[in-house]
């Protein structure tokens, strides 16, 4: 199985690094418009670098490609790869347009190709621990905080598409339910696109959920709180630490730490993707699931 990576920014360079760790010389090529960066990573990993991904596809003929370029470029690159019968891991969101995303999914389905979409938080061991804790229990509410400084890599989408879409996916993933109602309050302080938002959701199963996200906080916070009937589960998705608070009585309560098998989420995600390709069975986040999250994110972005 020959593997290549297109786009060597903050995510792409980690895709390349992890593929090298997982499969060694099966990583045959990397591509980026930045020749200085591309040559540097190519030399570090001992793989061929291409400034033009078309040339890389033609020469290396990879079986598998990770697309880690800006969202606005996903459709064109992914369609070209699918035409060459290449399995894809596309960093989230799948595209910036539902119709284009559906077209990619239709092409892949007809050709029997795998598309996974990079919702890496699903593979966060902290999320896995939380999901296990709430299994078969009634979830009352989910509250997520995802804030931090503005990332220079983002130039073509607002914060709901870039960050909020992670949590749209997580809320559906943890509850196992679909969205009944969605609402957004947004700020476009000094920018064309929203850079802060409060998102609210009502799920079909009755769960209520909220997401607070912005690009103004000088440090990263990735926190999730899941309220059950008799307890509160709190997780830090950066440290992968999860605690449960329960048994409130006489102004006191009990706290317990929940075991988390801490691992690098992206390594788990890419390993799952490669296994999907081997088994010809979608084990990760499918294009269909990604399209559902994208549709919700676009509705929130475009709402008044």
Can you characterise this structure?
The chain is 37% helix and 31% strand. The chain folds into two domains: 3-119 and 267-285, 3-Layer(aba) Sandwich (Rossmann fold), CATH 3.40.50.720; 121-263 and 297-302, Dihydrodipicolinate Reductase, domain 2. It is globular and about 70 Å long. It is α/β, with parallel strands linked by helices and 304 residues long. Strands 8-9-10-7-11-12-13-14 form an eight-stranded mixed sheet, covered by helices on one side. The chain has a six-stranded parallel sheet with strand order 3-2-1-4-5-6, sandwiched between helices. Helix 4 runs parallel beside helix 5 (98-111) and helix 7 (159-175) crosses helix 9 (287-302). Residues 156-226 form the GFO/IDH/MocA-like oxidoreductase domain. Residues 2-119 form the Gfo/Idh/MocA-like oxidoreductase N-terminal domain. InterPro entries: Gfo/Idh/MocA-like_OxRdtase_N (IPR000683), Gfo/Idh/MocA_Oxidoreductases (IPR051450), GFO_IDH_MocA-like_dom (IPR055170), NAD(P)-bd_dom_sf (IPR036291). It holds the Pfam family GFO_IDH_MocA_C3. GO terms for molecular function: nucleotide binding.
